[in-house]
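User: Please run a holo structure prediction.
Assistant: Happy to. Please share the sequence and the ligand.
User: Here you go; the ligand is flavin-adenine dinucleotide.
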Amino acid sequence: MKKVTVVGAGLAGCEATWQLISKGIMVDLIEMRPSKKTPAHTSGEFAELVCSNSLRSNALTNGVGLLKAEMRLFDSLIMKVADECSLPSGSALAVDREVFAKRITSILHEHPLVNIINKEQDVIIDEPMIIATGPLTSDKMTKVIGNYVDNDFLYFYDAVAPIIIKDSIDFSIAYYKSRYDKGGDDYINLPLNKEQFFAFYHELINAKTIKLHDFEKEIFFEGCMPIEEIARRGIKTMLFGPLKPVGLKQEGKESPYAVVQLRQDNAVASLYNMVGFQTHLTYGEQQRVFKMIPGLQNAEFARLGVMHRNTYLNSPSCLRNTYQSNKRDNLFFAGQITGVEGYVESAASGLLAGINMALSVQNKELFVLPNTTMLGAMANYITNADPSNFQPMNANFGIMRLLVDTDKRSRKEAYANQSLSILKDYVKIWNDTNKGF
Ligand SMILES: Cc1cc2nc3c(=O)[nH]c(=O)nc-3n(C[C@H](O)[C@H](O)[C@H](O)COP(=O)(O)OP(=O)(O)OC[C@H]3O[C@@H](n4cnc5c(N)ncnc54)[C@H](O)[C@@H]3O)c2cc1C
């Protein structure tokens, strides 16, 4: 019988394990907790949700909602248990986190094909292995992975400004221009008059922020200061920083009092990030306050800003879109360490890595999912993004490709229908894949 080693029993590691054992493959599942803790986990249970108990939207017309539906097609363990432990929360999927973690732990503990090993892994073995050690990978393993991928390709913090889907920007207000016209029309500019600026400033400094863990406080360094901290330093500080208006006047219009700039974020120019807007505001507050910026009143955020400890790979330089290492066919990475961001995204990458590892040990063709599906779009984004400016990514429609030209109102539904229909063929292949050998 074939055996795979999975390191890390978080969301990705548990999902990968489930996919492997569903095909009769034995798994050594190595987890260091509870004997060695991380700075954020509080229990020894598997798949612990370290912060919110929400797995975000469950709606098919939302990127992460579609991702959940795709995972359910592949009989995802994380989705199955989340659905069983769900709590009332409107169109979102929130869970009782203790019941959720305990149930996943007991399912894997009791499974005859899973051998649980409680230790801190500190070596990459030559045998088939999936590394899913998460954003808080232990120091020893971080060093080992750093050596393996070349240290330049491993990062420790994630300080990301919100990223906006271009289609949702109001271009009757927004305009293309580079400062003093140096560099072509590289930026989208959002002008504010004096009154709009002060209203925005006031809401920004009074908005709710996320409480920092002690281990995260060190990320407040000058080059990466959150926008709300810059604002708190003085009423006009932002006008000399990210909202500087000079060189951005439009022909025939009044000089703006302040300008927010958006920079292109992906090759197909469907996503734009807010320059200098890394932030600690809660997700709800980011949506509320940033939509006050003229032109963003209907903005859809591909991802919101975060600043937190996050160990992750420069995946465009080290991974294939099968989640395999560039250097070796039988070494996979999964979860947040690959540069996907979020509970569901981490579990989803574990699902695809687990499936592909199972196919690989059975000498079958691996799934290279297209970016017309959300599972494929995530894998393709993290492995094809610009390696010189790689930032983790959430599931969103901005990274997907739509095959049919559809009007804006029915576009989200079209993304979902397209993806679920394309994946049916892959589900059939997967279901027909023999157990064992
Ligand atoms: C502080 C914090 C808060 C977050 N809050 C949210 C949130 O609210 N919503 C959201 O969607 N996402 C959130 N995330 C992002 C992310 O989605 C989660 O961290 C998610 O749990 C990642 O899944 P994972 O499987 O990749 O890693 P994890 O779930 O962290 O699992 C990794 C596992 O590997 C183990 N491990 C680490 N090193 C070793 C080793 N050397 N040997 C053996 N085991 C090891 C760990 O103990 C852990 O159990 C947060 C991240 C952090 C750091």
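The longest helix spans residues 411-432.
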